[in-house]
């Protein structure tokens, strides 16, 4: 087994986005492409020599092949040990947990998350640091610099190893440890939640469904929901991970998980339903005849987390991404705890969690998590909801209504315009940005602009500044619109328009969401000349 050094030339565009490097699978499969990026990661972190890494992915097409390549390269770069999920599978939160529990030097997570999988779909790779969280901007920037000057990479001239058998093998000088991907994660969940109370609630007739969307959470959900919590077999739907996710988008929202939504809207539907995404870090929460927006979910969880054993001493603080609705802010205010507003992407929560300033974090894109790992965590959110439901013995709908009656309601929706021509999208954003100064005072569709800016984040822990994180337009009365371009797409640009309107507790709390947001949507469309520029009358996806 000899070490081989290949020379290579840099590839354009190996710049990590919101969550690692995401490209079409065929792009990743080009000769030397993956290798150049992996070597750049090792170079950017001061080499792999003597280090231990966790390696695993969401099981999509090319997952297993890419892991073999990474293992050979890690060995050739002098790594000491690789901890790999059996068959190459690890949900993103489970990988984060392993990185932390085993006190490793970080991990390589293979996923394009909610994007579809397959040879003509998407693939992705990201590096998480020793705290278990996605590499912060200064590290991803260093990786990108390496990708621009890379001239060689190291690998081993060796056969593939068997990823299916649990236990240890050697690859050159490196130990490869294949682990059960579910075991440690399940143990962690048991320390946070009252499994007995949830089990009793389910045994008492509380019914639930979980849609794993043919992605990585299937084995986790079966072990935890059907195994440890005693939910009947068949509770987990689409529970076998597939390389193409059954040809769907493994994105837990009312569009891509429509069958589940239809189920809870039916007369004989379950009391609770949930879904997770490709790599298991997102969640969608549903109750009988009710969809909980991720922003509301964060707020409800913040208000009720003390009911679960892992959080019974209260929360240090709450953090949300900037486009996420301000519902959680109201809870934080009432609890008298800090509330942070960060740019989109979980990497910005890491410092706050490490410093003990935030306990719960959330994003409007179906991401919720806590300081138990350094990633958002789909099943964790499901279990916290279940724990709260078991304690409060109320329905999801009742809890939500009670929440709005206490704090008021932040009507909220995200409108996505997908595969927009990149130049068009960039010009729309640039022109709007240039006009931000003149917007205050403007009246549009009955709304008056009070403030407009380009969001910049000043990290309170390390003092770093992240600029250009999205355009915010505030209106009189507490409504708000945010515009930003996606950093996870692989085709053209995706323009995300986030809409929010606040209704006080004594106001109308049950208006249909899109109806409640009609004026804000019309106002932002007019201010950005959205239809004229993009030719789009309606969004492709509304969540
Ligand atoms: C999207 C979401 C963002 C999330 C990111 C990764 O990013 O908006 O909130 O953190 O996906 O989630 P963007 O740049 O496309 O808006 V996942 O589940 O893909 O790791
Ligand atoms: Co994900």
UniProtKB/TrEMBL annotation:
Gene Ontology biological process terms from the UniProt entry: carbohydrate metabolic process
Keywords: Isomerase, Magnesium, Metal-binding, Phosphoprotein
GO CC annotations on file: cytosol
Signal peptide interval: none
Keyword Protein biosynthesis: no
Annotated TM spans: none
GO molecular function: magnesium ion binding; phosphoglucomutase activity
The keyword Isomerase is assigned to this record: yes
Gene3D superfamilies from the UniProt entry: Alpha-D-Glucose-1,6-Bisphosphate, subunit A, domain 3 (3.40.120.10), Alpha-D-phosphohexomutase, C-terminal domain (3.30.310.50)
Record-linked InterPro entries: A-D-PHexomutase_a/b/a-I, A-D-PHexomutase_a/b/a-I/II/III, A-D-PHexomutase_a/b/a-II, A-D-PHexomutase_a/b/a-III, A-D-PHexomutase_C_sf, A-D-PHexomutase_CS, Alpha-D-phosphohexomutase_SF, PGM
Residue ranges occupied by any Alpha-D-phosphohexomutase alpha/beta/alpha domain in the UniProt entry: 14-153, 184-286, 295-407
Named cofactor requirement(s): Mg(2+)
Catalysed reaction equations from the record: alpha-D-glucose 1-phosphate = alpha-D-glucose 6-phosphate
EC number in record: 5.4.2.2
Family annotation (PANTHER family): PHOSPHOGLUCOMUTASE (PTHR22573:SF2), PHOSPHOHEXOMUTASE FAMILY MEMBER (PTHR22573)
NCBIfam families reported for this sequence: PRK07564.1-1
Family, as annotated: Belongs to the phosphohexose mutase family.
UniProt-recorded name of the protein: phosphoglucomutase (alpha-D-glucose-1,6-bisphosphate-dependent)
Species this protein is from: Marinovum algicola
UniProt lineage: Bacteria, Pseudomonadati, Pseudomonadota, Alphaproteobacteria, Rhodobacterales
């Amino acid at each position: 087994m000899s070490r081989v050094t290949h020379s290579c030339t840099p590839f354009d565009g190996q710049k990590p986005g919101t969550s690692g490097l995401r490209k079409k699978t065929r792009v990743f499969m080009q000769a030397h492409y993956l290798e150049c990026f992996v070597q750049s990661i090792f170079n950017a972190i001061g080499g792999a020599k003597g280090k231990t890494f966790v390696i695993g992915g969401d099981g999509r097409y090319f997952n297993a092949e890419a892991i073999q390549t990474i293992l050979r390269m890690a060995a050739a770069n002098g790594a000491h040990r690789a901890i790999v999920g059996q068959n190459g599978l690890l949900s993103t939160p489970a990988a984060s947990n392993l990185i932390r529990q085993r006190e490793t030097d970080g991990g390589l997570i293979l996923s394009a998350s909610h994007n579809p999988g397959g040879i003509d779909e998407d693939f992705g790779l990201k590096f998480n640091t020793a705290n278990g969280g996605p590499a912060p901007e200064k590290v991803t920037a260093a990786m990108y610099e390496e990708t621009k000057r890379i001239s060689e990479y190291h690998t081993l001239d060796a056969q593939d190893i068997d990823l299916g058998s649990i236990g240890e093998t050697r690859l050159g000088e490196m130990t490869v440890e294949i682990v059960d991907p579910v075991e440690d994660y399940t143990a962690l969940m048991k320390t946070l939640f009252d499994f007995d109370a949830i089990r009793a609630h389910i045994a008492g007739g509380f019914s639930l469904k979980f849609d794993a969307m043919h992605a990585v959470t299937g084995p986790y959900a079966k072990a935890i929901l059907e195994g440890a919590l005693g939910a009947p077999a068949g509770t987990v739907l689409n529970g076998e991970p597939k390389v193409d996710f059954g040809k769907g988008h493994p994105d837990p929202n009312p569009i891509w998980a429509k069958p589940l939504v239809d189920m809870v809207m039916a007369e004989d539907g379950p009391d609770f339903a949930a879904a997770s995404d490709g790599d298991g870090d997102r969640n969608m929460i549903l109750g009988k005849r009710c969809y909980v927006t991720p922003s509301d979910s964060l707020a409800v969880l913040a208000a009720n987390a003390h009911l679960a054993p892992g959080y019974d001493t209260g929360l240090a603080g709450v953090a949300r991404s900037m486009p996420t609705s301000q519902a959680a802010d109201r809870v934080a205010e009432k609890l008298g705890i800090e509330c942070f507003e960060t740019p989109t992407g979980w990497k910005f929560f890491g410092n706050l969690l490490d410093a003990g300033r935030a306990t719960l974090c959330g994003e409007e894109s179906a991401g919720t998590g806590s300081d138990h790992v350094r990633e958002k965590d789909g099943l964790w959110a499901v279990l916290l909801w279940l724990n709260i439901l078991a304690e409060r013995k109320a329905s999801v709908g009742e809890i939500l209504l009670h929440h709005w009656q206490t704090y008021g309601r932040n009507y909220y929706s995200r409108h996505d315009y997908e595969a927009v021509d990149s130049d068009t999208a960039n010009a729309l954003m640039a022109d709007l940005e240039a006009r931000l100064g003149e917007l205050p005072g403007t009246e549009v569709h009955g709304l008056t602009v009070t403030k407009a800016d380009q969001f910049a984040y000043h990290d309170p822990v390390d003092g770093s500044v992240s600029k250009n994180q999205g355009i915010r337009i505030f209106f009189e009365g507490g409504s708000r619109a945010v515009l930003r371009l996606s950093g996870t797409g692989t085709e053209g640009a995706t323009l995300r328009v986030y809409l929010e309107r606040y209704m006080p507790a004594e106001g109308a709390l049950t208006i249909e969401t899109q109806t409640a947001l009609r004026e804000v949507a019309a106002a932002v469309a007019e201010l950005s000349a959205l239809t004229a520029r993009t030719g789009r009358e309606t969004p492709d996806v509304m969540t």
